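Fold it.
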Amino acid sequence: MKKLLVANRSEIAVRIFRSASELNLRTVAIYAEEDRFGVHRFKADEAYLVGKGKGPVAAYLDIESIISLAKEKKVDMIHPGYGFLSENAHFARACEDAGIIFVGPSPELLERMGDKVAAKKAADEAGVPTLPATPNPVSKPAEALKWGRKIGFPLIIKAAFGGGGRGMRVVHKEEDLKSMLEEAQGEAERAFGNSAVFLERYVGKAKHLEVQILGDRKGNIVHLHERDCSVQRRYQKVVEVAPSIGLDSKVVNELCQAGVNLANKVGYNNAGTVEFLLDQDTKEWFFIEMNPRIQVEHTVTEQITGIDIVRSQILVVPEFCVRHVKHGFSDLRVFKSDHGVKLS
C-alpha cells in the first residue's frame, strides 16, 4: 500500500491528503478543467485532469476515467470523500474489480444504507424506531398522492440516494404535492444522477441528532458519541455541536446504542453516521437515515475525541493494517485500548 487517490476536490481532498501523508502514503489528486487552479491540485504529490470537457461536476462522476487513471498510475487505494461518488456502490465495485481498495463500506453496504428506503427497512429490522414513510421510492403523482393521504400532511419529500439537503421539499397541502414532487425529482437527478424520492412524515419542531460510527471488517463497532445539527438553513447544517446541549443523558445513550445496534445488524464497516430526529413535542426519537461515508462535520467529533476519523478509515482497511500496523491500530480492539472507546 503506497499510493492513495482522492476522488474528490476542494477542502475534503486536502483533509484526506493530510491524513494519508501522515501514514506515509503518496497522494494523488484529480481535477476537472474548471478546477485546474484549485488548491487541492497542488496539495497532492501527483495531480491529473479527469473528465475533460464534461464540466465541473460530471468530471468527478466519471467512474471509467477515474478507474482508468488509477490503474495507469498504480494507485492502491481510493478515498471518495463526501458527495460525488462517496455513496455510489457501482464505483466501489469498480474499484474492487480493478484491484483497488475503496476506503469506505463495501459495495453491498452502500447499496443498502445509501438507499434511504432500504436503510429504513434495516432500522425496522434492528428494532430502531422510524417515521411513517413510503415503503419504496415513488415516481408518479398519483402514487405519491395515495401515500401522502395515508402518511398525512405536512410531509417531506426526500431523495432516496444522496444527502446535503438536495432533493428535499416540505409539502403542507395536498394540491402542492405534484409540483414539489417534480421539483425534488429534478434536483435529485441533477445532484446524484438518480431521481428516486420517497415521502416521510414531517416533524416541524425537531432536534436533528447524529451518531458517529466506526467499524472494522472483524465485526467490531464503536460509536464516537453524538452531534447536534439542529441549526440549519434550507436543510443544510449551519451549526454543529458536540456533545449535544441540554439533551437528557438517557436519550443520548439510547441514540448511541441504537446507532451501534443498527450498524451491528447490517455488519457495517468503516466510518458512517446514523441520523435521528427528536420530536420536541412528544419527546419521541426516530431514525431517518444513515450516511455510509465521512461527513462534512466529522471534524466536530474529532475535536471532542482527539480521534482522526479519516486516518481511522484508512487504518481499518485490512490490507493496509497488515503492512502498516506500526502506524496505528490493526483493528478496533487495539483502537479501544488506545482511545478508551467502548466496543459494542
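The CA atoms of residues 19 and 311 lie 5 Å apart.
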